[in-house]
Amino acid sequence: MTPVAIGIIGLIVFIVLIFLGMNIGLALFLIGFVGYAMVVSPKAAIVVLRTMPATQASTYSFMVIPLFIMMGNFAFHAGLSGKLYSAGEKWLSRLPGGLACATIAACAGFGAICGSCAATCATMGTISLPEMRKYGYNDALSTGSIAMGGTLGVLIPPSTPFILIGIMAETNIASLFIAGIVPGVLMAALSIITIIIRVKINPSLAPKPKRYSWREKFSSLKGLIGVVILFAIVLGGMFSGFFSVNQSAAVGALAAIVLCAVSGKLSWETFKTAIKETVATFSMTFLILIGASVFCAFLSITKIPIMLADAIAAMNVPFWVVIIFMTIIYCFLGMIMDELPMILLTVPIFLPIVDAYGWSRIWFGVYVVMCMELGAISPPVGLNCFIIQGISKDIPLPTVYKGALPFMLTIVAGVVCIYLIPSLCTWLPSLMVG
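Predicted structure:
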């Protein structure tokens, strides 16, 4: 059997194992090890098994992941997410579907201190869904807005997926962080516009807009001070060249602990809970990283990534055709797996294609994350949709899908925007010091 045939069989078996509910990290690990043994030799596979975990554990760049996870956990326990939602509600209350719009804005703000799609969705869903149901918002609009808002957690920096893409694509992580700001704001604005259009077309989806005084609006801004401080420390330090990515993550984590203490929410029990959540989340992430490194080693020796890149280059089609092809694949993969394995599986395959067409790797990083957003709300799985249904079990999953489907068009519109105007992704990084 040829290496290419073994590689294709390995990909198929991996997808089958995911459908059967096997842990993603273990599935990647198992397929990578067995595939490498079949293509090269069992002895060589054992060498990979012995060296890969140690290599991953000693990678200095990965240290940034648990630090940003810790920052997000302490920011959550400090109550910053609730204050974000309160401010968004008051400033966007006059728009049609004001609470749903506030959810999008709050998710965008929380993404600046979290970096996780699932965490943003779960956190903001717990806060905003009861409020929208209390005021009579349609369940489909409410759940769809939260599912879409949750996707902003991986686009607005700091973002764990950007860290992984930066490492795999050998691209500056700080530049990728900065590159996500404008597209993140763009996606938040497009999502709010989508909500307004839906409510205008069908006013029964939301109650009449509620009014707040200017005094209440400006008073709510006090709750954003903590978020602004974290955002300024992390991104300001990187943008100015004063901090490296790892240093920004460490200072940001310390600042989040201080903010938690200042808010009066820091106790020994809170500290232990936040640390346990950080360790649990990173352990899951690290298992996926180890499994994916073994799987990518197997995939590389099959020559499938290079052959695919050469085949597409030989077709001599415009780059927008390639983008449509890759977007469909990401949409499909998003139905069956989380963002981390999706990155680790596809970046080695698609990166040579993007390089062949001469497009920026920074642009490619933003594109991949936006496609992950699409996968996170795509039926028949859609991770964010499952999270929302888990928060409110009395809302049927089809209702959540119904609310999320219009936002798939929103994400596609965002992808079209960054394709037509690549500077949306590359302009800010070009201004970075160093």
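Summary: The chain has one domain: 3-430.
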